Amino acid sequence: MSFISGGSRWSDVGLATAARGIATCGDFLAASTLTLTLQAAGAGGIAVAGVLLAATLPLVLFAPLTGRLADRVDSRILLTSAGLAQSVICLNLAYAGHPLLVIGLVALLATGLAVTQPVLSALIPAMVRPVDLPRAVALNQTAGMLGALAGPALAGFLVGWFGSRVPLLVGAVSYLALVVAGLLIRTRRGGARPATSVSADTSMPAVADASAANWRLRRDPLLVAMVATLAGVVSAVGAINVVEVFYIRETLGASAAVYGLVTGAWTLGMLCGAWIFARLARRFTDDATLIQGGLLLLAGCCVMVLVSVTVPVALLLVPIWLLGGVCNGGDNVFHNVVVARRVPEAVRGRAFAAIGAAVQGAAMVGYLIGGLLLEVNEPRPLIVGCGVAGLLVLLGFVRPVRRAIRLERSRVAAMSPAAGLATSVPAR
């Protein structure tokens, strides 16, 4: 793998993270606006699940294509063109009336996200030195979390004051941040030339090229175990994304503004968790340790979901969701650091797209289950089911993860000291 030589380009990290934060705010603003509008119009869980599925399906279907685009096409071209397209689509979404047209436009909007997500994820490691990677990942997480925090809150207030059109127009403007970032970021990757910021090991270019050409996710047992565990938990708990709007608005009787505040609390927790656990991630050179830590953090998320059913009023969800978000944010940092360490630079776009597709595909399963079960069950028992299912999935993956860790440590121990420098080294 390759990282930047010399000093890290923090100005580029700042531009990329700002663009991600603003565009993410647009994503969540649009999604929350549509969810609130459907719920207020009397739509059921299946309608809400349909919108969420439309917003997720392109990230799964197009991952093989968008991952290769991120690695082979100039990142500047992809960010500017996708940002412009998303802005136009969201503008049309503000004036769409027919439900099928809305779902189609949401799917197109998500197609743009399927392009920009792996581009930005692969650019961040190319901007910084290895020692600065956890901090850069935490900054990127922070931007995304701030955007996800602001989006639902803005949607709650704007929908209450102005209806659905104004927040969608604001969302259309937010995507222009990707265009600005694409034009100003000096770090570039993809295209016919090598990444401008990355210094590959020129003493062995053929080895580096061969490593990238032969890389497959399925050939890395540790990454496979990590992704499978994460996807399994997301599929088990993902139904809560459909259920929570009915739980908060109907079961607990909260207003649209309180709904935005509560959903934003989880995101605020993720922001805090990203910085707390970024400091820890720098101390561990053993990828297996980070993955084990991720398992504990995912368990924390599931426990907080279970605890949330005990509250009598919606505002009491805020501290519970904050703690769950802290665990979620820490897990995201650990997993992103592991991927950036283990995947060759030339194929990072493909790797991030593939992993994102696995997780988003699992989320789709959760959305579908949540939408169907809401037709025959109340929200509160469904949330209990989500938390219990998540913990059971984690228990089921403990043994496969341990097996993958043993294989990894045996492989590292069998390598020469020189070769060991290219991979993760067991912590002392």
Automatic annotation (TrEMBL):
Pfam families given in the database record: MFS_3 (PF05977)
Main localization (coarse): membrane
Entry's localization field: Cell membrane
Domain Major facilitator superfamily (MFS) profile: 1-189, 221-428
Parts of the chain that traverse the membrane: 43-65, 77-95, 101-124, 136-162, 168-185, 222-248, 254-278, 290-314, 320-339, 351-370, 382-401
Keyword Cell inner membrane: no
Lineage top rank: taxon: Bacteria
Membrane topology annotation: Multi-pass membrane protein
UniProt KW keywords: Cell membrane, Membrane, Transmembrane, Transmembrane helix, Transport
InterPro entries according to UniProt: MFS_dom (IPR020846), MFS_trans_sf (IPR036259), TM_effector (IPR010290)
Protein name stated in the entry: Major facilitator superfamily (MFS) profile domain-containing protein
Highest classification ranks of the organism: Bacteria, Bacillati, Actinomycetota, Actinomycetes, Micromonosporales
